[in-house]
Amino acid sequence: MKRLGKTKSGVVSFAVEARRSGLARTVSRFRKDEDGSLLIFGLFCFVMMLLLAGAALDLMRFEERRTKLQNTVDRAVLAAADLNQTLDAKEVVKDYFLKAGLTPPDPSDIIVQSGTFNEWRTVTANVNEEMPTWFMNMMGIPKLMTPAAGQAEERIGQVEISLVLDVSGSMNSNSRLTNLKPAARDFIDTMFDSVEAGKLSMNIVTYSTQTSVGPTLAAYFNMSGEHTKSDCIEFNPSDYDTPAMRFTPGIAAQYQRNGHFDPFNTVAPPSLLNCPTEPERDIVAFSGDRNALKTYVSNLGATGNTSIDVGVKWGAALLDPSMGAVVDDYILNGRSPSEFSERPYGYGNREAIKVIVVMTDGTNTTEYMLKPGYRTGNSIIMGNTSYASNVAGGYSLWDATRNQYYIVARGIWRNEPWGDGTYRTCGTCSWQQDPGDSVPLTWQEVWDRMSINFVADRIISPAWGSTVRNQWRASGNTVVSRMSPTTTPVDKDDLTRNICTAAKTQGVTIFAIGFEAPTAGVNLLRQCASTPANYYDAAGTNISTAFSAIASSINKLRLTN
Known about the structure:
This protein is α+β, with helices and mostly antiparallel strands. 37% of the residues lie in helices and 19% in strands. The strands form five sheets. A six-stranded mixed beta sheet has the order 8-5-4-9-17-18, with helices on both faces. A five-stranded antiparallel beta sheet has the order 14-13-12-11-15. Strands 1-2-3 form a three-stranded antiparallel beta sheet, with helices on one face. The radius of gyration is 45 Å and the shape is rod-shaped. The model is unreliable at 1-8 (pLDDT under 50).
């Protein structure tokens, strides 16, 4: 019994010990076995990778949608901001979205602003579309917002315009001047309506045989001082190689003032001066006053020959930065608004455009200049201020070879000038009376009293004959030198091409209008214009169409978006 109990007790003890030993081994094996943990971790990583790949796919969908929205917004606002867009700007934006298969923004999210005269327009659009997610939804992100916004602005930048108008005598034909005036006035209005206030300056240059600078603008240039009765400059050929003007003091920089004379008529006193003296023929420079510009155009008259080269030279000069000090002084004296303080802008300034609009109904013709010996100093003509200047008999002519005076009233040569106090009775022929107190007239006084042809026909011809008379006439070669339109040594067509090229090289845009012009004039203007598309043919009232097209083209030249 004792043995059995002892044995049984040992068996129990052995069994307990065996169980303890197996559990320890099982725990040890479980502790050392990694197969289960790697499987769980792998499953965890797979789920995470799936979610991340899904999120990436959602983000790719988001970016594709956002890009499509942004591109549509950009195109829509650009089209809506176009100043030539006649449709409602908000409807234009909505239409772009609909055609792209997108939901248009709410009207309250489309903001349109524009200038009083439609000289600028800004369009802003905002859109925020919801995009349901596929995989990010499992992470608690059921949708993504895809915002897009765009703004476009179109406006005219700083604009400088020189309007160069032909007012030669032929403009009186076929109602050309009559048709020009409303067309030019409408052009002025269109430009001021389409450019923001203070950003447009305009010059008007009228030309015929010459261009009158006018006393105000002429005061800034170093011009010769033979007289002060008119203000035209005789440019040298080299002056047409650049738009710039010379302001350096000294004789070398001096401009020759054109003589005050009449090369056209056979009358006294002169009635058709080479350099116009009417105020409405003076250059209008750096103006921001549309009403003053239109009034100037309304008062235009037409006389004289045609010098396109001179007109374009002045048009280009008034756009050149060399005139900056003149503009500053114009502002100081209240002739130009303070907004023009940086004008004329430098040629490289991207915020400004410079434009010349030149119009002619013809082609270059003769330009006249007094020869040096007939500009100043005592002349060979004696006269008396008590006699009317239109009476040739009040004068006598000095002939150095005879050492005598020709007495026009008597038709004789004698040693004393007409003015010794002797009278010849002729009833009412008071012009044959010796006026007394005869004095040598200066050449300035002669040309102020008589036309060149009057002197040639009424004084020179009786004394020296028709051959000398012809040399003295404006068409001769004694008193005046003539710049010819298309012949050497001075070719006005070449000078026109030179100044047009010089201006275009500096970035000036040139538009040209041939107003019922002949072939030669048309060809010259085509060469002057910046591009073939910048030349316009016009006839009759259609000149308004040409000016309108040019105004539209100018508005497209300089736009900021």
